[in-house]
Structure formats: C-alpha cells, structure tokens
C-alpha cells in the first residue's frame, strides 16, 4: 500500500504543500481535507456587477515579487504570462494628515526617505521632524541580539513623527497589528540588517537595488514586474491553477478534520473527520490557522497545542464600493491611502483598486476597497454590515469626496485571520518547531509562523512537504535495514 499523506486545509499553504508532495513523492495516497466549500482560504475573487464588470478581491489582491516563492509557483503552474504589475498611475501612496490626503514623498521607502528634495518639500513632516529623521545617519547602532518592537526601532532611528505619520500606518496596515508589540526580527528583519550593515536605515534604503523581479519563464520571460504582482484575472486564478494541477480526487471539500491523534499502531496518525470514519495516515500537514491547529492537536500533544495558543490573532473587515468616476472629487492618482492611528479615524486604509491594477472596473467607474479593524480597533470589525458600510461611505465622502450612493457594495470579514507577530515571535516559533519535531511525519504550514504573505505561505507549504517526505523516506530506510 502506498503511504497516505493528509493535508489539512486548502489555503495557499496547504495547496503548495500538496503540489510539492504530488510532484516529488511518486506513488502516494494524497488527500487534502478542506472544511469549507471552496479552496483558497482568504484568497477569493468575484466578478461582480450586472455584467461582471467589476473584479473584487475578498482577500489579498497581489503578492510581493521580492520574495520569489509565489512568482516561482506561478511559473510552475504556467500562469506567469498572465501576471500584471501595479499601473504607472498608481505608484503614489497617500497618507491622511490632519483630515486630508497628503502624498507620501516620492522616493520614501516604507519608513525612510531616499530622495532629498521631495522629502524636504513635503508638508507631511515638520522641520524638527525632518531634522530628527536625518539623525539616522549618525546615531549609534542598536544591540543586534535583542528583538525589539517595530515602533521602538523606528522611533529610535528616525523619531516619533516618522513613526506616527508613515511607519505606523504602513506597517500597521500590512499586519493589522499594534506596532508597539510587533516583532522587528519577525516582520521587518531587513531594517535591522540595514542598521547593522550600513549604520543607517536611510543609507541602507538608498543603496538597495530597485524593487521588482524579472519573469524567468513563459511567453513573458524577461518582462520586469514591480514590487507587487497579480494575475490579470484576479488572485483566485492562482488557487484555481494549483487545484487543477493536483491529481484527480485529491481535494476533498466540506471535509472537516476535528482531531489528529496517534493511530492504534502508535506509528501512524488517526485523522478524525466530522460525520465520518477516521483516516489512518503516515504523515499529516496541518495547514490551518493557529486556533484551529490548537484544537486539532490538543489530544496529540497538549504542550504543542499550548505553544500554538501563544500566537494571538486579530480580526479585520473590508468594504468594497463602486462609484462612477465623475462622482469622486479626488483625482485618484495613486494606489490608495493609509490612515495613521493618531488621526483617530475608523478605517485603517483604502485601496483604489481600479487604479492599482488594470481590468478591475470600466474606465468610467472607480472601485475602492477600505480596510477596518485589526489589533488597534477590534471593535470596528465587529460592527454589522450596514454599520460598516455607513462608516466607510462617510470616510469616502470626507477623504475623497465620494458623496453619491455607491453602485456596488461588498463586505468581507476575516475573523481571527491575522497572526500577531509579537516581540519574541521567532523564539516562540522555534519552540513550536522543536515540539513538532518529536512527531515523525507531522508538519505545520501557514501564515502563523515565519511570514504572512503569499510567498511566505508558499514557502511554508513547500518546507512542510519536504519535511514529511523526508520523514517517510527515513521510515522506509529503517524498515529496509530491519528486513
């Protein structure tokens, strides 16, 4: 009988693990169990409107190209030629400052300026704030062996204004987190490396290579993508291509796993299913979020489950609205805007979706997606749909001049979906990995551990697949030696 491998969860991490197993395992009984009615996890794309004229993303709308795993997966799946980057008109980002949208200075990279004149001319920072940011050139290095919060690092290097007005809204929105507790080592290790290598974050960003990556395969090989890329027909295309590449019958939807325990023989695993008989498995990849993993593994290893429970999660929501372009006063000449917490507004950010990527709306329409909730405002994500829409409509009227009633409304919620990488996160993950290591053939994958992005999750799934395959190979070798 071929070995049976069960992957629990059909988000992008679980699909990446299953693909790698299918490609490299040879003869194997592979099953992907997904409790929901569709694969993809938080990734979901909808064609909305009377004629399907709007492309609405419910989850991430793109992936970073600086981390190569998602791009390489697209190349393996044969969809790299369908990838598009951010449109030229959308390379500007705004930030809310004193109730109005102010562009982040040209050349400003996440937390630091790389071009002198636009930064000096910007009304976003006061002259004392600019002087404090310039001190980054001469400040001593910190202690590299100590993990610190993102807020502590940015304020120490660049000052309070740089943190409050740009770093906090940019980084806080990415992670839906409180930057005062967010681990620098786990989320922004590049900043610490710039301080260590160059003695200055500004100097490090100034010397960094241009963002983006060239396509290596397919009809579009040699074409350069910017820092963000997405399939022209939406992120769901990545999920659909991955599912289509799996062997027939591998994916089992509406198949809820309720527990993973030891099988009676003590060597294999028993995968309990809701409303059905348990499955015996030689290896199991747990590719679900932390709270679900805790429930699954509690009877197998309570200590491991306890370690997983230490990773907290935040909830968020997004509201997508469509308008006629003529109904909005703002020029929408950028990718969107972020909202500093010091502004005390109810939304985290908004993306001008129809400007950011081509094909998201007709030319005479505007599609805007607002984000709410997160660690700093958990109560907002808990509002009912009508209240969420009312809040976002009021913000769109105040900030971009969209006073008319929207022609399309979509509300999406992600409850307990964003892991919070608090200071010391990498130590917690190392402890989790050590606890998993005593269970041969068991692996974890997903956003909870070493990165929240699409590429991070693909890398996590690949690593989990390699781990269980190596475990099965070692078991075969032991049996062969015993024979």
Structure keywords:
483 residues, alpha+beta, seven-stranded mixed beta sheet, five-stranded parallel beta sheet, 17 helices, 36% helix, 23% strand
Explain the overall architecture.
With 483 residues, the protein is of the alpha+beta class. The protein contains 17 helices and 24 strands. A 7-stranded mixed sheet has the order 8-7-20-21-22-19-23. A hairpin with a 6-residue loop joins strand 15 (257-262) and strand 16 (269-273). Helix 12 (302-309) runs antiparallel to helix 16. The longest helix has 29 residues, at 454-482. It is globular and about 75 Å long.
Overall geometry comes to globular
Helix percent band: 25-40%
Distance between the termini: 17 Å
Q: What spatial order of strands do you see in the largest sheet?
A: 8-7-20-21-22-19-23
How many helices? The count is: 17
Instruction: Characterize the main sheet.
Output: 7 strands, mixed
Question: How are the SSEs ordered, and which strands pair?
Answer:
Elements: E1 4-8, H1 12-24, E2 29-33, E3 45-48, E4 54-57, E5 63-64, H2 69-77, E6 83-85, E7 93-97, E8 100-103, E9 108-109, E10 112-113, H3 116-121, H4 127-134, H5 150-158, H6 160-175, H7 184-187, H8 189-198, H9 201-207, E11 213-214, E12 224-225, E13 228-231, H10 236-245, E14 251-252, E15 257-262, E16 269-273, E17 276-281, E18 283-286, H11 290-297, H12 302-309, E19 313-324, E20 336-338, E21 349-351, H13 353-356, E22 365-373, H14 378-381, H15 385-400, E23 408-419, H16 425-436, E24 442-444, H17 454-482
Parallel strand pairs: 1-2, 1-18, 2-14, 7-20, 18-24
Antiparallel strand pairs: 3-4, 5-13, 6-13, 7-8, 9-10, 11-12, 15-16, 16-17, 19-22, 19-23, 20-21, 21-22
Helix pairs in contact: 1-10, 1-17, 2-17, 5-6, 8-9, 11-12, 12-16
